[in-house]
Amino acid sequence: MKILIVGPSWVGDMVMAQTLFQCLKQRHPDCEIDVLAPEWSRPILERMPEVRQALSFPLGHGVLQLATRRKLGKSLAGQYDQAILLPNSLKSALVPFFAGIAKRTGWKGEMRYGLLNDVRVLDKERYPLMIERFMALAFEPGVDLPKPYPRPSLHIDAGSRAAALAKFGLSLDRPVLALCPGAEFGEAKRWPSEHYAQVAEAKVRAGWQVWLFGSKNDHPVGEEIRLRLIPGLREEAVNLAGETSLAEAIDLLSCAGAVVSNDSGLMHVAAALNRPLVAIYGSTSPQFTPPLAEQVEIVRLGIECSPCFERTCRYGHYNCLRELAPRPVLQALDRLVADPIEPVEVE
Predict the structure, then answer these.
(1) Residue by residue, what is the 3-state secondary structure of the chain?
(2) pLDDT bracket for residue 315 (50, 70, 90)
(3) Please, what are the domains in the chain?
(4) What's the whole-number mean pLDDT along residues 231-242?
């Protein structure tokens, strides 16, 4: 059985999509799974053993270009028994339709009747978690999902990890605290840089080194965090945001002794690497897309106006994050991992 998955457009969603691939392999051990997704997602998919190959989708998010989708669909004709669509958009259904794939499965959305022939109607109360909505597409309608639920698990190649360490001149002589202060979704997911800096300072004093991760857009905030550290501590923090590829970021995150992250794609990557993780929530909720790992502490204030799921604060104060002090994050880290040495003073 050959299955084409039309993948999501966000890092975290792609990581969580592995739960669907795992369910498909449980049901059909010999099935072959290919994933049609943006090129950026290849490093994630290459670290999922359930995926045979990643197929690069040549169009940007939200772009229609009907002729390109038709051409791509025709190039895939006759290769698959089923297509499963994770996005709910009409556009995502076009390639499997043009490919003439016999069974085209997805949730009802954006007038996709005709493009899909296995249309599911989503019961949000029955499937409150995103992974449940992904996993359910592996089964017939109405079937109870098997428990315990699978968890994403990215596999790391020791050689590529060693190459990334060498490229950036990084050493594992001290435990690594990874900080992920960005969030592509918007400002309402970003814990303030001054709070991250206080966490970084406390852990450096306790014998850790700090690596900062993120995209090019996150490089300035990473540098702001690093520069908030006093001389003598600042040298123990490395700003990798925007410097690494996604593949290198994944490999380097696998070295972390602990991770502190906003609700972001890298949070889900850290969870899939089974790193001890403190996840900080502000405008969003762990009730829909929680990090899926064994060693996780979720820290949030839960003030009256959150979760609002807005990209920017409608009131302009961002209190759900600004009023979340560093202490509970440090306490969560202490519950997860022990410091290597007693705190030391640096002049």
Answers:
(1) CEEEEECCCCHHHHHHCHHHHHHHHHHCCCCEEEEEEEHHHHHHHCCCCCEEEEEEECCCCCCCCHHHHHHHHHHCCCCCCEEEECCCCCHHHHHHHHHCCCEEEEECCCCCECCECEEECCCCCCCCCHHHHHHHHHCCCCCCCCCCCCCCCCCCCHHHHHHHHHHCCCCCCCCEEEEECCCCCCHHHCCCHHHHHHHHHHHHHCCCEEEECCCHHHHHHHHHHHHHCCCCCHHHEEECCCCCCHHHHHHHHCCCCEEEEECCHHHHHHHHCCCCEEEECCCCCCCCCCCCCCCEEEECCCCCCCCCCCCCCCCCCCHHHHCCCHHHHHHHHHHHCCCCCCCCCCC
(2) confident
(3) 2-138 (3.40.50.2000), 159-336 (3.40.50.2000)
(4) 96
